[in-house]
C-alpha cells in the first residue's frame, strides 16, 4: 500500500508544483507549451532509447501479453468509432481520444500498483513493450500522416518552424513517409529496438546524457500538466460525455475484455488478475504532451488523464478484491 500511495503522492506533488507556479504568476501557458515541446522532441526520445533498449522484446510473446494487446485494441475501437462517426472528430482528435485508453500509465503508477495487488512488478512489462513497440509507433504514424496531409496548418506547432503549408498540402506520400520517420519518438523507439535486438551498448559518453535527458520526462510532463490545470480551461468545460465514456471504457470495459481473453486462453488466476490490473491503469500523462504537439484534443487528454487517474485506485482495489 505504501508504494501505491507514494506513486499517487509523487504525481500529486509535481502537478501541484506546476499549478502553484502558475498561480503565483511565475510561469504562464507559454512555459507549459515550451516544457511540452522539450519533452516531446528531446526527453521522451532519450527515455525510449534506454527503456526499449534494456527490454527483452520476447516478453511481448505470451498469453498475458496477447490478452493485454486485444484489450487495448477493443478499448481503442470503442472510443475511436464513436469519436469519428458520432462526434465527427478529425483524425488527430480521434487518435488522441483512443490513446487515452490504449496508452496506460504502466511505469510510474503501474509498477507500485502491480506490487501492491500482485507482489509481482513484472506483470506490467508486456504492456510497456506493447505500448512502446507497437501502440505508440502506430499512433505517431497516424498523427504524422494526418499532419503531412493537412500541411501542419492548425495541426501543431510545426507551423512556427518554417513549414510552407501550401506546399505541404500538395505533398505526396513520400514526403508524408519521411516526415513520419523523422518523428523523434519513432526514432527513439527504433534505436531502442536495435539495441535490444543486437545486445549493443551505447558508449558512456552517449548513454549518460541520454539517461539524464530521459529522467526529466516525468517531472517536466507533470509540471506542465499542473500549469495547464491552473491556467487552462476548467475540467469538464469541454463537456463530460466523452470523458465519462472514455473513463468507463478504460476502467471497466478494458479490464473486462482482458479478463475474458485471459480466461479463454486458460491463464491461471494470478495471471488473469495481473491482466485485469494492468488494463485498469489510468491514461498516461504523455498523451497530454502529444495532444499539445499536434494541436488537437489537449483539453480532452488532460481531463481524461485526471479522471481516470483519480478513479483508477478504487477500480483496481475492486478488481483485486473480486479476482484476488
Provide structural commentary.
- The structure is a single chain.
- The chain is an all-alpha fold.
- It has one domain (2-323): Up-down Bundle (Na+/H+ antiporter like fold), CATH 1.20.1530.20.
- It is 75% helix and 0% strand.
- The chain has helices at 2-23, 29-54, 63-85, 91-102, 110-118, 125-150, 165-169, 173-181, 184-198, 204-215, 217-231, 241-264, 269-279, 286-294, 298-323.
- The radius of gyration is 19 Å and the shape is globular.
- The protein starts with a helix and ends with a helix.
What does the main sheet amount to?
none
Number of helices: 15
Q: What fraction, in percent, of the residue positions are helical?
A: over 70%
Instruction: Kindly report the average pLDDT value.
Output: 82
Query: Under the CATH scheme, which class?
Result: Mainly Alpha
In the predicted model, the low-confidence regions spanning at least 5 consecutive residues are 153-171
Number of domains: 1
Note the overall shape: globular
- Overall CATH architecture: Up-down Bundle
Distance between the termini: 15 Å
Strands, count: 0
In short:
This protein is mostly helical and about 325 residues long.
Strand and helix map with partners:
Elements: H1 2-23, H2 29-54, H3 63-85, H4 91-102, H5 110-118, H6 125-150, H7 165-169, H8 173-181, H9 184-198, H10 204-215, H11 217-231, H12 241-264, H13 269-279, H14 286-294, H15 298-323
Helix pairs in contact: 1-5, 1-11, 2-9, 2-10, 2-11, 2-14, 3-4, 3-12, 3-13, 4-6, 4-12, 4-14, 5-13, 6-8, 6-9, 12-13, 12-15, 13-15, 14-15
